[in-house]
Each structure stands twice: as structure tokens, then as C-alpha cells.
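Researcher: Please generate the 3D structure of the following complex. Treat every line as part of one assembly.
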Amino acid sequence: MPRPPEPARADPIPELPLEQLAGGPLATLERRPLRPYAPEALAFLGALSRTLLASPACRSHPDVVAFAYWCRPAHLARLAEAFVDGQQRLGRGLTLHVAPANVPINFAFSMAFGLLAGNPNLVRVPESLPVQAALVCRAIAELFDDPAHGRVASMNRLMRYPRDDAITLALSAQCQARVLWGGDQTIAHLRAMPVPARCVELSFADRYSLCLLDAVAVGETDDAALAALAEAFFRDAYLLDQNACSSPHLVLWHGSDTEAQAAQARFWPALATCVSNRYALSAVHAVDKLATTCRMAVDLPEIQGCIRHTNSIYRLPLATLPADVAAHRGSHGLFLEHATKDLDSLGEIVSARYQTLTTFGIDREALAGRLQALGLAGIDRIVPVGSALDIGVIWDGHDVVRTLSRIIALQ
Amino acid sequence: MTPLDAPDLSDLLTLPPYGLAAAEKLACLGRILDELTHFHRAHCPAYRRMLEVLGGGAPDESGLAAIPFLPVRLFKDMELLSVERDQVVKTLTSSGTSGQAVSRIFLDRATAALQSKVLARLMGDLLGQQRHPMLVIDTPSVLKDRAAFSARGAGILGFSLFGRDVTYALDDTMQLDLPRIEAFLEKHREAPTLFVFGFTFMVWRHLVQPLAALGRRLPLERGVLLHGGGWKKLADAAVAPAAFRSALADHCGLQRVVDYYGMVEQTGSIYLACERGHLHAPIFSDILIRDPRDFAVLPAGRSGLIEVLSVLPQSYPGHALLTEDLGTLLGEDDCLCGRLGRYFSVERRAPRAEPRGCSDTYAAPA
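Model: Done. Output below.
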């Protein structure tokens, strides 16, 4: 397919058969970008944060609350401060975001990143429109009606349309930046749609994540800290049914087998309590876990058995780490686990697919140094257990806001 | 018996299909199912490996509950068989539509023969030993198109063995073929019983609804309607079983409407509903209801996941399967219909399960 020409500022976006969830007609879209962390963008996101936190309906969804907290003014002010690098910057221009179907609130973060970078944004929200997405879209649409947010409203559109290549092609031809989220196949399919030559692209494809717990540290925690650790792990793994890219599938215990066993005997029952209190496992997902276990049993000869804490947690201990362990994922609370004294063994499994390493009782800076020394192709985040789902402006190894803005170099 | 032999079912095949009370049935079925576990462990390496990882049943379980079970959906993901491939005479699939995962069940000669024998025993109990004129609420093209040949076609063929002068009520475009049905009724006006068969949704969509729209009534008072394939689509259309039955009485005069529960993964040992509308486990099969939270066996009256156990699967390790259907055990040996054994109801497929079941293979036009 031929590459579309660079869009001009005055080029109107053609009207397309899509359902608009927030913002006026596409033809009226304001294409002029702002500076990164522009006051208009900060004011809008701050107002959005307040609106969401004031809504009882929104407050019942932890992921909506997490987004609302993320864009509260104090946090954005810290991000703005950290962003200052002495460069003159401007948004790149119209940014197309294609959000993933399996993480309801991801579209809002994607849009916020584009907005903080100073860009006009076209955001495709998941077609199924999960309830969380609908709530946030409504809040945004209402704020757009407020003349105080006229500039932001003029440059942003939330929309919904079926998997329709004609629409995505037409929008891609217009954009100066494109942000794609989804499975590997979706990303490959979308990336084949041409964009203007100068367009920058960020692709957030399918990733794999794991957890590293120091056995002695877990063994030595007091009961309150253990419960907090279990709660934190629960958030990482269960809040999105282990379907998020950053949710752990493998739990590595740093320590000897004996140390690991002692730690496991404390950790997993604490997690089981947390899961049984807080998680509604559907009948069909309980069956899924059993089916996945059966498949993995055949595919991975390293699996030594299956330890179940009711159907809340399935644990499959591994005698050794298979090189392709990342190809075997659980969902709704199914974990492979293994104890190792040697963290350099990460080098034998980590590929470019690895994204988040959550840790407890581990010196993360020292670990990052070891991973750098090993020259690993993957692991973009080393964060405490409980922070796996905390998406931010640095994601998948990219500084998203810097990438979505351009530098006007001065000499 | 060595683990190399499949269990001998010849004794069981001579007994009345609903003739064993709890203790006897448990002794008999428990032994055969245990033997099947040993047999499949010896002959199916994948099954052996799964049991090795899963371990035995929970220590507090005994009887049928202690028999290791596999999720029925595993047959969609894996090819599991306990015989050499050259022994496979027939492969059953759950669905012929594209996009959906399909179960593949491998039958050797012995298992295929057992399925037919057991189904014959159960149908004999329902219809008597005589074969009656049969009206199929479906289109003959379901058998013609080999590519789309599916559980629907296999079900029709399987049950057709128990009827004669098999006549299809629908034409190739799924329209009710009234002249053909009338000719069938005229030809068999002396027959004391007519055997009517169809999948639940097809009966509703392509028999009841068109008759209601036309304001027509078919004189099927002599009919015994056997229908299966699940209630999901009817539930989606907000049709309750009682409404289904009363519509059939109104539009066809059908008084004997018999639901059955069964699946391609355990063809043959189906569960037929009695006059009271309860599904009954025959001596060849049984059910357990398991708690979705921990797979513990639930007592009568509590809804849970249905596990089906059958003595028939010899060529594949499918003798104890956990379904994604929710059901409730209603009782054992004490149904007022007089049949012995457990009886139960099926509520629905567990929500968000992949669409499954015979009647789902035909996508109804909007």
C-alpha cells in the first residue's frame, strides 16, 4: 500500500462511520498541538480526576480509581517536574490510539499520555465498551461540554467502531503519531497500515511478566507485612485475571529449596485467604484452570505436581526452568513456580517478550545492574510487588511522552 | 484383568437400564470406572502424565468422586486416545462450524459398538423394541454437506437407527415442508406411535414458531418427541421449558416430549428425561455435581458443575469428564417415575463458556 502524504494542519479528517463517544465531528478537529504538560492539558486531566473520584459509580471500580489517582494534579505536577530537560518541545500532532480489548481502562491512559505530550488524539476505545470505559468516556464527554476545557475538547475524540480496516486506514493516513496496543497479531495487522513517513509509532504488543520473591525475606515478615504482600500480589495477578501483560505467571523464589519451602508455606495460604475474600472465580474459569494444568502437564515435563489452594490458586512447581516458560501462561490464578539461588539463571529464560519483574525483598537497583551486565533482551520494569499494573509515562521501555513530542533544537 | 484389557461390560448390557439401586450401581460402576482409569493410564501417555501432575483425588473422596476427571474441553485442545491410530474407525466432532474449537473423539471398533448397544438399550426403554415411523425436525442437507457434517448430523444418524421411514420435516432452506409432513402422517395414519426427533432450538425455531405464524396445527398426538442439545438458545430467546412443552401441545398435540442430556464426548450413555421432567442416569453412566470453588462433590439440591461418568469410553480417556454445564442433583433411586439411579436437572451452561452443544452448530439467521 502506498504511503500517505504528510497531513497538513488544515486538512479536515473525513467523516467516517464510527460512533463518537466524546468530542465533536471529526471535521472540526483542532490539529494544532500544544507543548508537553501544557496548562490546558493539566487542568483537564485534573478535572477528570476530580470528576471520577466524586462519582460513586466510578469509585466501585479499582482500575478507574487508579486512573483517577494517576491524573490527580499533585501527581501530574511531579511528572511535569521530572519531564523538564531544558529542551523546547511540542506535541507531534494528531495521534491515533488503538486501545486493547482486555484492559478496560487502558485507552484512558493512552489518551492521557498523548495529551500530556501536547497532541490532538483520536482514541479507539474497546468495541465491547466495558462498564469502566463507558464511565470514563461519559465523564470526559461531560467535561468537553465545559467551555473551560474548550481547547482540549477541540483536539480530542473518543470513538468506537468495529474491526474495520477502512476506518483505521483512513485515520492512519492522517496521523503524525500512532499508539497501538494489542496482541502480536493485531499489532502486526495494524502496523501494515501505512502512515505518513514522519509518523512515529509506539507498539505495545503482547508481553510476559514474572515475580521474584526473596524466600528469606518472605519467611521473616511479620503477619501484617505478609498480609500486605499477599494483598499486593493479589492486585498484580487477580485484578485483571492474569490477563494483563504485566501480571505475573511465574513466581521465582530466590533462595535454597528449604528456604523457599518455608516461605511458600507462609505466602500461599496468605494469598489464598485474600483471594477467597476478594475474588469471584466463575465456574467456567475454574474449569479453565484445570484444563490449562492438564495441557501444561503434557507440554512441560519439568512440572512436578499441582498444589491447589481450593480453586483460588493453582501452583505448578518446576524442577528446572524451561527455556520457553513464557509460552505457558495461566489465568485467573495459575502460577508456575521455581526456587533458585542464582539470579543469573534469569539469563536462560528472559527474551524480548519479558516486561515486568515484580519483586519483594530484592535490591532492585543491584538486580537491574545484573540484568544490564547479562545484556538481556527483555525486562523493562523492575517494580515492587503490587505495582505491576501501575502503568506510567515510562512503559515497555519507552519514555512515552518524550517519544510523542518533538524537540525544537536551539543553538 | 491386566491393565492391557478394557473392562468387560457384557453383564451390564443385559440388565434393565434403570434397574440398579445405589449400592449395587456404585459397586458395579465404581469397579468398571476404576479399571478404565488403569486402562487409560496404561495406554494414553498424555492421560498418565496429567494424572501424575494432578495427583489422585482429594483424600476425603471415595467412590465415584475419587475417580480422576478431566475437563471436557480438553478434547478441543488435544488429541487424546488410548488406542493406536490405525485402530480408530470413527472420529466424532462436536461442531462443524468454523472459528469454534472442535472436540475430536476417537473411536475404535469396540467403543463404537458399545455406544450403539447402550443407546439401543436406552431407546428401547423409551420407544419399545419396535421401530416407529420417524420424523426428523431438521433438513436432509445437514447430512449431505460433508464439510459441515457435525454432531448435529451424527446425532440424527445415530437416532435414525431407532426409527423407520425417516422423513425430514424441513427442506434445504430450513422451511417447514408441510406437504411432505402431511404425506408422512397420511402414510402412517395406522401407526400407534411416531418417533419425532430434533434439537431443542431447531424444534422451537423451525417447527413451533412457523406453525404459530401460519396458525397451523399438526396432528402429532401419537408422537414421542425426543429433543436435546441444550436450552441455552431458548433461554436466550426467553423461552422456558414449560412454555416449550405447552407450545408443542398447542401446535402439534405432542404430549410426550422427552428432553435428553448428552455430549459427543460420551456418545451413547445419554440421560433421558422421565415423565416428571427429571434427567436420569442409566446404569451405564452417572453424574456428580461439583462445587466450582473447590470441585468438592455437592449433595442433592445444590447447583454446581456437572461431571459425567460413563463406562463406554475405551478408546479415549473420557470416562470421567467435568463439563461446563451447571446442574443440580435432585435425588437417587426415589424418583416418582420408578426409575432407579440418580436424577438431576441441567440449569444452563456456565456463563461465558465457549458455545458448545449440538444445536449451536447452526447459526440462525437474524
